[in-house]
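Following up on my earlier message about FE2/S2 (inorganic) cluster. Here are the inputs again, as you asked, copied directly from the submission form:
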Amino acid sequence: MIKVRVASRARVAEDIVRLDLVHAEGGELPSFSAGAHVDLFLGNGLTRQYSLCNDPADRDRYRIAVLREPSSRGGSAHVHDTLTEGAVLDISPPRNLFALDETGGEHLLFAGGVGVTPILAMAHRLHALGARFTLHYCARSRSRAAFLDELAAAPFAAAVRLTFDDEPDTRLDLDTALASPTPNRRLYVCGPGGFMRFVTEGAAARGWTPEQIRKEHFAAEASVGENQPFELLIASSGQVVPVPADQTAAQALEAAGVFVLLSCEQGVCGTCLTRVIEGQPDHRDTFQTDAEKATGEQFTPCCSRALGPRLVIDL
Ligand code: FES
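Thanks, got it. Here's what our run produced:
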């Protein structure tokens, strides 16, 4: 845990605030790498993850930007409504699940909406390394795009390409952007689910390999399909816990008195990962890689479910 203070706060786009967090006792913060995020412990029992978007060379502050989600369950709304300048809160040290591959010869960065946050830190780092890169930033409109002024003034401004849904002449041309998937090129994408699929499926169709593509959702996607009830068998005790369609596995376990450590409750952080001994999970998290999901060895009870009637889990 690190105690930080909100040193400054500004509205940087419609429904998006930028917060600069400094050490509450003064001095340097732990270093971070481009693509890293911190957990914010919001004091209302919720923990939320936000990517750091400032230059990783900065040691005096962490900068985050938070979109007020229309369906906020108390995370982004709490940030918007209570984290004013001077507020003190606990955060985790930075963790990175979306790291740059600095050995790449050229980097294509794709940001959708507030997914620009980790991408911005990556651009700072790549510029510092003298690496070749292009930053494609897509948003619904200019008014909803954060950090446009910062990007225009950045030393890497010439590498930035902007696309706005309401300005057809700025359209993102994937044929041009994703041409030549030579092995030394890397692609990074962060944004909402539809945007991620547009870029990653477009890349795959143009010959990019999964090893060249790194991605991070800024929030778990909404549930996929209709929920079916299933049951969990706790291997250590033999207890059977029914999971109704309107509850998550974690909620059902908690109601049955089985403790599960939770953090994001959105399938993003991996805190609740639980080993699966038998049965096939219906993965709905964005924490595990596709290869990890394919093994079916672990699942995230905060959001994932079962494809069959029962999962036997290692609790
Ligand atoms: Fe974060 Fe489940 S609590 S992935």
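One observation from looking it over: The first helix runs from residue 76 to 82. Hope that helps, and feel free to reply on this thread.
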